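Sharing a chain and its predicted structure for anyone who wants a worked example. Both blocks are below, sequence first, tokens second.
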Amino acid sequence: MSTLVLLRPWWLAILPLLAAVALWQWWRGPAAGGWERVMPPAMLAAMRALGHLNGMARRPGLAALAAAGLIGLGLCGPAVPRADAPLLAGKGAILIAIDMSPSVAESPALADAQAAAAAILAAADGRPVGLLLYSGEAYDVAAPSADPATLESQIAVLRADTMPGAGSRPAAALALARQMLQGAEDADLVLISDGGGVDDTTRAEAQRLDGDGIRLSILALTGTAGGKPPEAVLDTLGAPSAPARSPDAVLRRLSRWSDAWQTDPALAALEFYDLGPLLVALAGIPVLGLFRRRA
């Protein structure tokens, strides 16, 4: 991954100020040791043409601005991710909610749901993981446990006749998940669904989850018996989503504190190479020009 990030972006505010100073210097014209303030422009131009003001150049100001710009960019903390960055696990529970409505349970999408759930278990990195299933109603299968291996067998044996009844009520699953994760910190809910049954009540439950500080992520199942594309429906829940067959985006969200480095400099040093010191060192090049001896 070669994404460039800014560790201290508020230092960008200095760049418009430097640009304003550079514009003012350009408008003022070349410095003449103060003579430009007392001599008419025509006389000043004549003195320059005769070579009497050649030593008064505008380069010192530009060099200082260039150095200040490089220092400002360095203070912004441009950084690239480290290839050897440690994987930092969260501390809160992860709850998996699997859609077991007939459109999923009676189609090849069930295998995709099982594979996605297994991938979540692998990405948990020590976080407690729980499981609930839903169709017309939602059922608590396992409370979050620090030993996700206990869920592997339960996920592996899911079949079309596992759930009683029919229908699809994701709102019931979100309500039960909110009850199971009530009071938990840094908690995640992963909804694995084909989008069936998503309605205004479901969207209201998703907002309640967000209000309680529970992060909702969605893995969309395709190729279900219903035959409807789920992405447009699931996107109305306002949560990050990914296809169940390629869940990497959601797994990365679960397996590391993606934003913790913004408030913890120690984590930023572990996760990124800070290129700021290099830019600050380059600022020495225009600074050296300020010490050049002039005739």
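Comments welcome. The chain is about 40% helix and 15% strand.
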